[in-house]
Write a structure and sequence with these properties.
Layout (H helix, E strand, L loop, with lengths): L6 H6 L6 H7 L7 E3 L5 E3 L1 H6 L7 E7 L9 H14 L4 E5 L4 H5 L7 E2 L2 E4 L1 H5 L5 H21 L6 E6 L3 E3 L9 E3 L10 E3 L1 E3 L4 H8 L3 H10 L1 E5 L4 E3 H4 L2 H7 L7 E5 L4 E4 L14 H10 L2 E9 H16 L5 E6 L1 H7 L12 H19 L5 E6 L6 H13 L4 E4 L1 H8 L1 H13 L14 H11 L5 E3 L2 H15 L4 E4 L19 E10 L4 E6 L18 E2 L5 E2 L3
Parallel strand pairs: 3-16, 3-17, 4-15, 4-16, 8-11, 17-18, 18-19, 20-22, 21-23
Antiparallel strand pairs: 1-2, 2-14, 5-6, 6-14, 7-12, 9-10, 12-13, 14-15, 22-23, 24-25
């Protein structure tokens, strides 16, 4: 068994190939790269355009059961699966989201995988990377500044300061900024009004960044974003503020996908990064579509559990981008299943078949949810060193009752070789079985009914709770031409319900709707449920306390 090392130690000791060599391995010439050193690059527009007529590879989604503090390793499994496919001499690559600084300095840590299944350079990726998030934040806040400047002067659009829906953003967890009052200090400082901050990943600029098919489509979508309403209750858009061109200019370079590599020197796109509990949780369409032209097998992930990430991947990303997923890998761990079975985090190392079996009810609900979309699914168990064969067998036997295959994968400790069995099964499945993919609901279903349908058919809810004001908002959006938009549910990731402590597979609960947000550029409706926040807070002991720079000027403490 390998010596136990931290993720950072493993990543720091990795042998990296020059990024030109990584690019050349999938047919990207060196002159089509914008280099960020010798281990990171952006892929130029001209090359992306030149690939459009090539045949698509197979698209494989990695998702997971409902997350727990014990961890599931969805990104780790995604990386391991790609390394496993390449270990089998398959032409494969991965498409991931870029990490946010919020969870990196908060509780979750980084998002570049773990163990011997990581993307590198790990420290760069988890911190500033190529600056995409900074550019998105700057573009978003430019719009915010223009709004207040417009009101400060003539306010020719008659914007109602009480009905501005556009907040500011910062890529940090900062609960003190959720609600603010701006414009204080006298006439020279603008018009006082109430506002707030969201985390950058919740920005509609981020959503548009990830859903736009090209830079022209990006500018069109940005133009259509609604920032608030006039005193006559008419929507006001970014185009009316004449700032859409400047936003596009700020993001011209960022919109090109980032190319990096796995620990085993296999190609990886990392581009965009919305969370799945408050946004649509998928990497950029342009990165995914480009990867499909370059590889026979493309692995991508959707954030958090399948009830959030996978549902939005199918109903928003695939619907909008015309993608057809060929298979789903549903990730679970014995520890997470034990937690869903009622075992406390401190007692997860001991074998407990009864708790595993009880926790598999959560796994079963996710399997049944995925089956509604017509995509073949395999369960991948992200193996821990404390797992027992009996625990694995209990999960395998449970899956057999559902006619679903379950594969044990040791990529965390063994890299691609440890994921070879899972990778072979996935490759055989997508090569031999056509996907019958369909979205969960039709475009013409009324917005309230779409929301209720998701709650009942994905979350196992009895009903939704929506007061008269919320129901009227739904009705107005339908009436005003937004009824064909998909729904982007914002709720806790820890439960099928809106109560994060209600684990397993609860049924019969209600989903309370607190707020509705129109995203007319991203072209979906955000439905905010329960107590979920679009600006997270830091834990009592944030991860940032462990991060620093050693005497050799190397970053330490990232995980």
């Amino acid at each position: 068994m390998k010596e136990f090392l931290t993720d950072l130690e493993i990543a720091s000791a990795a042998s990296k190939n020059d990024i030109n060599d990584i690019a050349n391995s999938i047919g990207i010439p060196s002159d089509s790269l914008i280099l960020y050193g010798n281990d990171k690059a952006k892929v130029k527009y001209d090359f992306i355009d030149s690939c459009k007529d090539k045949k698509d590879g197979k698209l494989i989604l990695v998702t997971a059961i409902s997350p727990t503090p014990a961890g599931e390793g969805k990104t780790t499994t995604s990386v391991g699966l790609v390394d496993g496919l390449c270990h089998l001499d398959k032409k494969a690559m991965i498409c991931l989201r870029e990490p946010s600084l919020g969870p990196c300095f908060g509780m979750k840590g980084g998002a570049a995988g773990g163990g011997y299944a990581q993307v590198i350079p790990m420290t760069d990726i988890n911190l500033h990377f190529t600056g995409d998030f900074h550019a998105i934040g700057a573009a978003h806040n430019l719009v915010s500044a223009i709004i207040d400047n417009h009101i400060h002067w003539e306010n020719s659009l008659n914007i109602d300061p009480r009905r501005i829906t556009w907040k500011r953003v910062v890529d940090m967890n900062d609960r003190a900024l959720r609600d603010i009052t701006c414009g204080l200090g006298g006439p020279g400082n603008g018009i006082p009004r109430q506002s707030g901050f969201d985390i950058t990943v919740a920005s509609e600029i981020m959503a548009v960044f990830c859903l736009a098919s090209d830079l022209e489509d990006f500018e069109k979508r940005v133009s259509n974003i609604t920032i608030g309403y006039s005193r006559d209750l008419e929507p006001v858009t970014i185009k009316q503020l004449n700032v859409h061109g400047a936003v596009t200019a700020l993001l011209r370079d960022a919109f090109q996908p980032n190319l990096v590599q796995t620990l085993e020197n296999n190609p990886a796109f990392m581009h965009g990064g919305p969370f799945a509990n408050i946004a649509h949780g998928c990497n950029s369409v342009v990165a995914t579509k480009t990867a499909l032209k370059l590889a026979d097998y493309v692995v991508t992930e959707a954030g958090f559990g399948a009830d959030l990430g996978a549902e939005k991947f199918f109903d928003i990303k695939c619907r909008k981008a015309g993608l057809t997923p060929d298979a789903v890998v549903l990730v679970a761990t014995t520890k997470a299943l034990k937690m869903h079975g009622g075992i406390a985090k401190d007692n997860l190392k001991a074998e407990n078949i009864e708790a595993i079996t009880e926790g598999c009810k959560n796994l079963e609900k996710h399997i049944k949810n995925i089956s509604q979309f017509g995509v073949p699914v395999v369960v991948g168990i992200n193996e821990y060193v404390t797992d027992t064969k009996e625990e694995h067998q209990a999960i395998i036997d449970f899956c057999k009752q559902l006619n679903v295959e379950c594969k044990i994968s040791s990529h965390w400790s063994d890299g691609g070789k440890g994921a070879a069995e899972l990778a072979q099964y996935v490759a055989d499945m997508v090569d031999s079985k056509d996907s019958d993919f369909n979205t969960l609901y039709e475009d013409d279903m009324p917005l309230l009914e779409k929301t209720k349908y998701i709650a009942q058919n994905i979350y196992g809810a009895n009903n939704i709770i929506a007061d008269k004001k919320v129901r009227q908002q739904f009705a107005d959006l339908d009436k005003n031409g937004y009824g064909h938009y998909p729904i982007c549910m914002a709720k806790t990731q820890y439960s099928f319900s809106t109560d994060p402590s209600l684990m397993g597979a609860p049924t019969g609960h209600d989903i309370p709707i607190r707020e509705i947000r129109l995203c007319s550029g991203a072209e979906f409706i955000v439905v905010i449920c329960g107590a979920i926040m679009t600006m997270p807070g830091l834990p009592r002991k944030p991860a940032s306390e462990n991060i620093g720079v050693d005497k050799d000027k190397n970053i330490e403490g990232l995980f």
